[in-house]
């Protein structure tokens, strides 16, 4: 082990020691951005960037477990990704499916796909639903795999689901308009029944949500990291955790 590795390990331990375990986020959302830019920066194919990003997920989930996080939402594929070139899209879907399978094969985590899954190719959608059923009783943290996910799409789907439910009950639009509130919509989101994210991390230096968990992140804390996702290190994660622990959350007050 070289001096650089020793210094890195010492710094990592100091960071971890300074984080108050009582101020750990329960739910973390992660916008895993920068796979393509990382690939271009190191002279690799774009598919290699996506694969390195997928490989990084195992590390992240282990770090989250060590920290005491209960729920992680990973943005793996957005509805906007359908606009990418056909060859890249094919590689990306293959890599995502392989990544979700590998997470399931550990037997450690409960994988819960969230998104407009019916917009995905039929075999892919069925595979995701089978993985969700097969991992439902796993003991570890819950992993929301946000696939074919867009925040506006989620809210539109929630409203559509709410209207359909009340139409089946015979509720008129006029009656529904009198009683509908925030909780009614929340109960129809992809993440219904789950706590909202306490912390949202975005890599690659971009400082925007791009539609990620639009409804749920109203009171979340945000942490923007310069590192591209494939280069995201444990010290980057620990810095995010330290930053979160030092904040005074006001929930909009």
Automatic annotation (TrEMBL):
<comment type="function">
    <text>Catalyzes the condensation of isopentenyl diphosphate (IPP) with allylic pyrophosphates generating different type of terpenoids.</text>
</comment>
<feature type="binding site">
    <location>
        <position position="84"/>
    </location>
    <ligand>
        <name>substrate</name>
    </ligand>
</feature>
<comment type="subunit">
    <text>Homodimer.</text>
</comment>
<keyword id="KW-0460">Magnesium</keyword>
<feature type="binding site">
    <location>
        <position position="221"/>
    </location>
    <ligand>
        <name>Mg(2+)</name>
    </ligand>
</feature>
<feature type="binding site">
    <location>
        <position position="202"/>
    </location>
    <ligand>
        <name>substrate</name>
    </ligand>
</feature>
<feature type="binding site">
    <location>
        <position position="33"/>
    </location>
    <ligand>
        <name>Mg(2+)</name>
    </ligand>
</feature>
<dbReference type="GO" id="GO:0016094">
    <property type="term" value="P:polyprenol biosynthetic process"/>
</dbReference>
<dbReference type="InterPro" id="IPR001441">
    <property type="entry name" value="UPP_synth-like"/>
</dbReference>
<dbReference type="GO" id="GO:0045547">
    <property type="term" value="F:ditrans,polycis-polyprenyl diphosphate synthase [(2E,6E)-farnesyl diphosphate specific] activity"/>
</dbReference>
<dbReference type="InterPro" id="IPR018520">
    <property type="entry name" value="UPP_synth-like_CS"/>
</dbReference>
<feature type="binding site">
    <location>
        <position position="82"/>
    </location>
    <ligand>
        <name>substrate</name>
    </ligand>
</feature>
<feature type="binding site">
    <location>
        <begin position="208"/>
        <end position="210"/>
    </location>
    <ligand>
        <name>substrate</name>
    </ligand>
</feature>
<keyword id="KW-0808">Transferase</keyword>
<dbReference type="Pfam" id="PF01255">
    <property type="entry name" value="Prenyltransf"/>
</dbReference>
<feature type="binding site">
    <location>
        <position position="38"/>
    </location>
    <ligand>
        <name>substrate</name>
    </ligand>
</feature>
<dbReference type="GO" id="GO:0033850">
    <property type="term" value="F:Z-farnesyl diphosphate synthase activity"/>
</dbReference>
<feature type="binding site">
    <location>
        <begin position="78"/>
        <end position="80"/>
    </location>
    <ligand>
        <name>substrate</name>
    </ligand>
</feature>
<feature type="active site">
    <location>
        <position position="33"/>
    </location>
</feature>
<comment type="similarity">
    <text>Belongs to the UPP synthase family. Z-FPP synthase subfamily.</text>
</comment>
<keyword id="KW-0479">Metal-binding</keyword>
<feature type="binding site">
    <location>
        <position position="50"/>
    </location>
    <ligand>
        <name>substrate</name>
    </ligand>
</feature>
<protein>
    <recommendedName>
        <fullName>Isoprenyl transferase</fullName>
        <ecNumber>2.5.1.-</ecNumber>
    </recommendedName>
</protein>
<feature type="binding site">
    <location>
        <begin position="34"/>
        <end position="37"/>
    </location>
    <ligand>
        <name>substrate</name>
    </ligand>
</feature>
<feature type="active site" description="Proton acceptor">
    <location>
        <position position="81"/>
    </location>
</feature>
<dbReference type="GO" id="GO:0000287">
    <property type="term" value="F:magnesium ion binding"/>
</dbReference>
<dbReference type="InterPro" id="IPR036424">
    <property type="entry name" value="UPP_synth-like_sf"/>
</dbReference>
<dbReference type="GO" id="GO:0005886">
    <property type="term" value="C:plasma membrane"/>
</dbReference>
